[in-house]
Amino acid sequence: MTTAGRLSRARVPRGGLARDDAPGFSGGVRETAWCAATLTAAAAAGAAALVVAYRRAEWGEPGQFAFFWAGMVLFTLPAAYWGVRRSTAPRLRLAVLAGYACFTYLPKLLRNPSGPLYHDEYAHWGQAHDILLDGRLFQQNSIVRVIGDYPGLHATVSSMAALTGLTVWHAALLVLITAHVLLVLGVAAVAGQLWPDPRIGVAAAFVYSLNSSFLFFDTQLGYESLAIAVLVWALACALRAMRSSRRGVRIGWSAVALLLAVVTVATHHLTAIWLTGILGLIAITCTLRGGELIGVARVAWGLAARTGLITVLWMAAIAPRTSSYLDPYLGRALGQFGGLAGGGSGGRTLFSQSIAPWWERATAYAAPGFALLVMTGAAALWWRRRRTADPLTSAGTAAMLLVGALYFPATLLILTPAGAEGARRSWAFSYLGIAVAAAPLIIALLDRRRRVFAGYLLLTGCALMLVGNNAAGMNPSYRFPGPPVFGSDTRAATPEVLAAAAWLRETQGREIRLVADRYSGLIFGSYGEQQPTTGSATFPTYDLYRAGPGRPISAALLEQLRSWRFEFLVVDRRMAEQVPDIRIYFETNEPIPHDGRPAFTRAQLTKFDTMPWLIKMYDGPHVAIYRFDFGRLGATTRGSVR
Question: Transmembrane stretches, by residue range (predicted)?
Fold first, then answer.
């Protein structure tokens, strides 16, 4: 028999169970009824607990964390039980996975059902809204400067809104829920291309759902939320192409994989890079395996090379700003981590001033250790089976072990202020490797004689990872509602700032260039439909605020503002009264002290009232808007600073 023939025979994942395990018709009906009844009751109880948790958080009452995690565990554990049962029918497994995906979107849906809430959501919502209004792709975005170069999500959302008549936000919810369901099913499909047992695919999907990005980050209106679902299906198609024995079928699945790669590249830069890297690792492990996998390795190298070429060409021709956007995060993170390792400064304190309960913080510290234990067991199982397993399964598992291993060094970057954000964003990808590699170990443990003990152990570990990973990945202010908090992306939309943004749009029009802090900029750039800047190393607009009364402001900065046609300055006087909740005033790399005290004085923020080249147009309890009058630069200062 040929090598391709052996791979083809080994590859075919059974659509359901082995015949000996398949239930009869009457048994299948009873099983389906019991499953539907238990999961419906669990979903209702879980959803009620989530609502109670959010209401308690909103009213400032205790117990929000306990109710939230009780609600999640109430559905997750029985769903996992039904999914990995040996006697569960194939269609029922599919229904359980789809139902689980829908339920795990519920926390984010309840968190903000009517409009954007997170930092990046304001940017993506505004971008899709502009495309719907103007019909133009690749427009620059003032909140996240590279997202205009990756219009896949925005084009999809605006098209859905135009076709259905839904608002941009509700069209986005439809797209995101669909992507979330496809992500869960896609992880199971990737695992299904490596192992014939469908329970392994279900186990992989559940393990992947435990990563810190799954509940809140990859459910938000962001380009990764769509792109990561496309990534897993591109991998599933790529593995199907490698499995194929017939040339025509292999070319067809390769073409579909490359088409999905193009969609990924057009949607999100990091996801495209990870897709290229994962395909490359599969190609390397297939090459090292040699023998029967030489032909498969050629297919893998071809897919990896073409995906990489598409990514490079897109970033060079369409999105050249991407490298400069990404470089500072990694460079500063490595520098801070080096300083930390050398005994210097640059670290950050985990859970500093966090309101999370002790048990949630404890699980956050325990989760990486449990993941390491699971990965060690998965690696041992792979090593024991490496000679007897299907060659592509063995090589693919090795690649996934390598992908999953990247989770652990990324976890160390959480100790640095600049690296924390990048570390969190990498976990959604590295956890794919953990999920696919660990799934066979989970099923092997459940198939042991003492499977009851193994089952309880796994369910306990599932609960620990679910709580711990999310506690480490998202601050409580991102996960729970509450009163307005200065310096929190999720609570920036106060009535005062919304009113100021609406006033500017209604009286002065849209797409006006203005200077603002991070939080005012979110609202003015989204709801206000303006083009704010919050400063950068090459355009330090924050120096306007930092200058003391009577001190000169950089002539070069003023010339930049004039030549780039900036028209307004927004000042939030709370910067002199409170410390931002996330310790940022303007942007991540700002040269502003963060010592637990407000970084500005009231005199610094009211000095603009006396500057002749600024005209106050709007004044609220905290927010003031000034118009630049650069023609009066050099005129005598009016009065004195209050």
Answer: 33-54, 66-84, 168-188, 223-242, 249-266, 272-288, 300-319, 362-383, 395-415, 427-446, 453-472
